[in-house]
Amino acid sequence: MSSGSTADPMFQRTQDFGDTPTEIRETDHYQHEYVHDFVERWDDLIDWDGRAASEGSFFIDVLKHYGCETVIDAACGTGFHSVQLLRAGFEVASVDGSPQMLTKAFDNARERGFILKTVHSDWRWMSRDLVGRYDAIICLGNSFTHIFNEHDRRRTLAEFYSMLKHDGILILDQRNYDALLDGKTGGPSHKFYYCGEGVSAQPEHVDDGLARFRYEFSDDGSVYHLNMFPLRKAYVHDLMHQVGFQRVTTYGDFQSSYREDDPDFFIHVAEKS
Ligand code: SAM
Questions:
Q1: 196 CA to centre of ligand 1 in angstroms
Q2: In sequence order, which residues have a C-beta less than 8 Å from that of residue 100 and are 6 or more positions away?
Q3: Which among 20, 242, 257, 262 has most CB atoms closer than 10 A?
Q4: Considering only CA atoms, which residue is closest to atom 2 of ligand 1?
Q5: Strand pairing partners for 200?
Q6: pTM of the entire predicted model
Q7: pLDDT value at residue 1
Q8: Which residues lie closer than 8 Å to 228 by C-beta, 6 or more apart?
Q9: Phi and psi of 133, rounded to 5°?
Q10: Does 178 contact ligand 1 (Cβ within 6 A)?
Q11: What's the pLDDT score for residue 193?
């Protein structure tokens, strides 16, 4: 299978999926997708103000409900949730496998008056890079979907499980891939979650093993892609239970009651005990 790019991701400015982009189905490839130019545009894509308004206090309320004080933001990206949680008084470790993302997150936080505790680590061996046990781990923004094989998914969830205190929680979100795979997303007008003004995010290719999304920025016409694995909701539940989580509650677009096809995103709250 083609790996798309062999360049050192630290020095790669543009994406390179090779000649057959839909063949790239590798867990490690995220390193080559979050290249400098895409990371620089990420905040236009997620739109901090719009996202804060649409999420409201959902995550903070859940964390407070479980009495959490210490949190690992396992896929911190450009730092949106880390900053929200620091502002709300949580102690946060900001983890990401992409050095470009971590640099951007650190700068974003500093501009807002916070110093991030950043940790460069891949989830699959996170316990090597981060010591201690935490009250909660968040893995948000459809990040877990970057893993392409079951072994790595189990390993990641097991790492998360082991880094939680005995009564800790994991909050992990994902796109509603069931609706996408089953052709129930409501057509091309469907809005795909967080998306700033002047950015379009659309699935370009979907099959049982790949959801390839295209992100286009209207101001300069730049186009980026992410190759992700289309996780079915029931499958994620099963995996979470299999690694030891006792109870998993799933919200649809931040609501506890929803019709399966409607939400764009599912948010799983998995309890360790
Ligand atoms: N949570 C952020 C947000 O919502 O804006 C970023 C989401 S972005 C879709 C996915 C993030 O997960 C990227 O920053 C990427 O580097 C990180 N990531 C993907 N696979 C990873 C892995 N195996 N280990 C650590 N980080 C990973």
A1: 18
A2: 9, 10, 34, 35, 36, 39
A3: 262
A4: 77
A5: 216
A6: 0.95
A7: 42
A8: 142, 145, 146, 210, 211, 212, 213
A9: -115, 145
A10: no
A11: 58
E strand or H helix at 211: strand 210-217
- Among protein residues, the one whose CA lies closest to atom 10 of ligand 1: 143
Q: What is the C-alpha to C-alpha distance for residues 173 and 212, in angstroms, rounded to an integer?
A: 18
33 lines ligand 1 (CB under 6 A): no
Residue 188 has pLDDT above 70, yes or no: no
Instruction: Report CA(245)–ligand 1 centroid distance (Å).
Output: 22
Nearest atom in ligand 1 to 122's CA = 24
Question: Which letter does DSSP use for residue 178 in this model?
Answer: H
pLDDT tens digits for range 209-224: 999 999 999 999 999 9
Q: Which residues of 86-120 are buried (b: 16+ CB within 10 A; e: fewer)?
A: beeebebbbbbbbebbbbbbbebbeeeebebbbbe
- If you measure from the C-alpha of residue 28 to the centroid of ligand 1, how many angstroms do you get, rounded to a whole number? 11
What integer is the mean pLDDT of 158-179? 97
Pairing of strands 265-271, 247-252: antiparallel
ipTM > 0.95, yes or no: yes
| Residue where the block lists tokens 């300069």 | 220
Which residue is closest in CA terms to ligand 1's atom 6?
Answer: 77
Backbone angle region of 192, left / alpha / beta, with phi > 0 → left and psi within -120 to 50 → alpha: beta
134-139 sheet: strands from edge to edge: 117-120, 91-96, 70-73, 134-139, 164-175, 265-271, 247-252
Whole-number Å distance, alpha carbon 96 to ligand 1 midpoint, is 6
141 Cβ below 6 A of ligand 1: yes
